[in-house]
């Protein structure tokens, strides 16, 4: 499968895991590590991974020796020595990895023996990345423009600066302890406060202050560089919103549409220059700002490591960014990269080109929070507020955007068009200038109310192109409202990304009737392959998206296919770990000999990795999208998460065999403050329930109770679907208990599906993959071996000294809630901690 | 208005007309670059051809003054999936639709361009026509059409002109010059004289050049008169020379080597090109229907300096005796990556050498 093998310089390689997920860290790094392990193993490396992220998929990989340990300097040093590690990948853990690796290097003593080599990024660059002033100097000396920055150590020094610098100013921490946060200060009144807050986030109590460049156009480039200095561009995407709104919170589009070739080539040249200056072997993500009035470019951020853009560009272009990045880090040149046979033999060397458009929309959780009474500041600024993102793939901007809206909006109340109509003109202007999460709908409403494109472009600093496009969308909508469902109109509507459901609403019909009409008129999706050569070469592509043209390139995988419906965008609560669950389902189905097809629209987790399934559809997950794929693939069964009740009903009504993966409809509830929630965790194989383990849950933390519950009588339990469940009861106690008095399970407890995050955690601690067992039970109960394994873990209970902690997300920073957010219910991420370590 | 594209092999694609609504004939090729549609459309190398853009949305950046590669585009047709309206920026007064109307160039959009490109990839470049109605008449017209092989005459200047600077005197022999070459020469403050390709050796030498550039251009180099090869053959012995695109192909022909015709032309900017001496990889805009045949390269006279790592084609040649070299790709970008601009730096180094030795 893999061609040549060159001699490996280093042998025993350690991946630093990225740790808990958070704003801007949705599991991309874990997915990247999981993806590259097989190819590195084939190339003869001994691989190790340390992580404390319970949702990690890579930690359950068979291709590396995996170590669950808190990501501390002490632990990493101990592992390096014990396992005789000679190479470490810091960049696969993003900027956290760089910070950790820098600390390990700083605390490495002579008596520790030879220090392993940092792969992909030179030691000096690791230092540079943690010292923004030095980085600024280095880039400026090479003629690259960054907004002028000054470091101050006190409020007094900061005030001094105010005499020289005009507002707005960008204030951020120097040597940040956690992910960098940036504050834009527009009013003098806010300045002191911002400096105060940021100084606390700095390890050295220093603050970097620079001129803010709000309102400029923001573009992100991803480039790869090899040890010989060869650079290639993987892709570029532009933000619809200007600098000043966090790129994660903006609609973004790839490839870039409104940037001229000359400017784009200048950006590319600068990005290559940065990669060369930093001497990177692997990916560099460069964010640039373009001042269209002067033509000046500014480099606003440099990320010489794997981050969300690496995964996203891999999915957008079909270019295997991670597989190439890992090999570049080990020292291979771009001509020496080995790829699986499904790629054209020259794929690694060719810059990918796209013949489709992809729109990314942020997903916010404001609605979910509001539902539980928490009000947050919805105004978008330079601090990320979105918790996830959804992608729309199409052949026009409108199609891609509509599909992204459909992919992002389900369960999101802020996207209601009714809400828009109630907005007064004053509120509208306020929100045009100070954007909220409902950006696209607001722009549409402004156009509906007759605002001119020029004034909107001026107010919002959004390129006129987008308004022309949105206007075109309104025209299409008006056309549909006035028209009859003709073939031509149906084709226009569907190739604009509108769903059968929406058309049904426009035409006072129902989804099924529209679907039939479209079918009769021959308006059926054509699936286009997503591959990196834009049609120049035949590639054995496995990724497809729907559009409405002439040629359908997708051929059904087999007559024994299982279709898996992905979880969509990353959300707070147990959505955070849904990528893990989906990936394990795919992996186990394949192990059982099924052909698998996945539908999803989220680039951040592992579920869409090319090697996990036989085919990937990058689509919204509404009923009409799913039914079209069902028509195309004729699957034997469809696996659907249990919270998608409407979809389950619709598919069942259409005669499909649906396998439900139990999941609660809303966020899992957790204990109130001062209260403990106890759970008897059980496995239900479709006929019988087996007790697993007892857990105690207090706000932000879950522990196992070392108590034998194997004799509990669960014979009365009958459930519709096999899966992992919890029998829940609560008590007013803040003490962690060694023994708990069991309630009467028949009357004093209630039953719910186990939240995905806890499934991921318990699977690791019990060393028993619960999801694999669930999948194996689908063919009609578990076999003897599995039943033995299920029973065998219990007497020798493992893991009572581990806890899952989810209290570290900084909601105050990102969302400014009016009351504390309960991190148990709204977990963004979690950590496995050994209790002795407390 | 619904219009149709008919290929020589009989395949029909339908879409909506834009630009000029005239009937058009040309050789159809495809381009995989995602940026620079205006530069591509105005590049004189596309005289007589129609382009299918793989990039599905074309026109979103409008039309602006810095992006002309020639003032009068010679392209015969533009085929896209989605035609975008433009923004209202001062630099973007014109949109693509109006621009093509103005220059009498037909376009067609809402075409399944990916299907078309996959088809052309297999069946090769061929004649095509854009028409209002698909009937026997249209098909017969297409079959009967003989496409011109006089593209260079049609495109290149017939009169000498200068683009003054205060630096070296560089003569550009025009075979269908694109502006990018003049733009880069301007960056070197070169004193440029552009000459028709019919200029005689004596006339060229009388102007006392410090260096000569054989420009890019359209069509098959073998359709040009023999005198061009003689001109190159003599001039390369006297003055530093750089051939680009068609100029590279002519440079090879003038040095006793032969070309092959590609079954499907390559137009794009994503192939890795390796500089053999340094092993370095660069990316550059390419637009080629012909390449130098490695079997029929006169290796006594020339050696290969660059190769395309995807199809292994020859991308650069250097003369063993004279300060003369050439590249198949476009080192001026416009559109395309700028890393190949170092070819001009190499050229000017050669020029400096020559000037120092001959003063």
Automatic annotation (TrEMBL), chain A:
EC number: 6.3.4.16
Lineage top rank: taxon: Bacteria
Cofactor names: Mg(2+); Mn(2+)
The entry's keywords: ATP-binding, Ligase, Manganese, Nucleotide-binding, Repeat
Domain ATP-grasp span(s) in chain numbering: 136-330
Keyword Manganese set for record: yes
InterPro entries assigned: ATP-grasp (IPR011761), ATP_grasp_subdomain_1 (IPR013815), CarbamoylP_synth_lsu_oligo_sf (IPR036897), CPAse_ATP-bd (IPR005479), CPSase_dom (IPR005483), CPSase_lsu_oligo (IPR005480), CPSase_preATP-grasp (IPR058047), PreATP-grasp_dom_sf (IPR016185)
Catalysis performed (reactions): hydrogencarbonate + NH4(+) + 2 ATP = carbamoyl phosphate + 2 ADP + phosphate + 2 H(+)
Pfam families named in the record: CPSase_L_D1, CPSase_L_D2, CPSase_L_D3
Family: Belongs to the CarB family.
Name recorded for this polypeptide: carbamoyl-phosphate synthase (ammonia)
From TrEMBL, chain B:
EC number(s) stated in the UniProt entry for this protein: 6.3.5.5
Region feature CPSase, mapped onto this chain: 1-168
Record keyword Transferase present: no
Keywords noted in UniProt: Amino-acid biosynthesis, Arginine biosynthesis, ATP-binding, Glutamine amidotransferase, Ligase, Nucleotide-binding, Pyrimidine biosynthesis
Pathway in which this enzyme or protein is active: Amino-acid biosynthesis; L-arginine biosynthesis; carbamoyl phosphate from bicarbonate: step 1/1; Pyrimidine metabolism; UMP biosynthesis via de novo pathway; (S)-dihydroorotate from bicarbonate: step 1/3
Binding-site list for L-glutamine: 217, 219, 246, 289-290
Family: Belongs to the CarA family.
Role of this protein: Small subunit of the glutamine-dependent carbamoyl phosphate synthetase (CPSase). CPSase catalyzes the formation of carbamoyl phosphate from the ammonia moiety of glutamine, carbonate, and phosphate donated by ATP, constituting the first step of 2 biosynthetic pathways, one leading to arginine and/or urea and the other to pyrimidine nucleotides. The small subunit (glutamine amidotransferase) binds and cleaves glutamine to supply the large subunit with the substrate ammonia.
UniProt cross-references to InterPro entries, sorted A to Z: Anth_synth/Amidotransfase, CarbamoylP_synth_ssu, CarbamoylP_synth_ssu_N, CarbP_synth_ssu_N_sf, Class_I_gatase-like, CPSase_GATase1, GATASE
CDD domains membership: GATase1_CPSase (cd01744)
Catalytic site: 332
Catalyzed chemical reaction(s): hydrogencarbonate + L-glutamine + 2 ATP + H2O = carbamoyl phosphate + L-glutamate + 2 ADP + phosphate + 2 H(+); L-glutamine + H2O = L-glutamate + NH4(+)
SMART domains noted in UniProt: CPSase_sm_chain
Taxonomic superkingdom: Bacteria
Protein name: Carbamoyl phosphate synthase small chain
Domain Carbamoyl-phosphate synthase small subunit N-terminal: 1-131
Enzyme class, UniProt record, top EC level: ligase
Keyword rRNA-binding (UniProt): no
Subunit structure and binding partners: Composed of two chains; the small (or glutamine) chain promotes the hydrolysis of glutamine to ammonia, which is used by the large (or ammonia) chain to synthesize carbamoyl phosphate. Tetramer of heterodimers (alpha,beta)4.
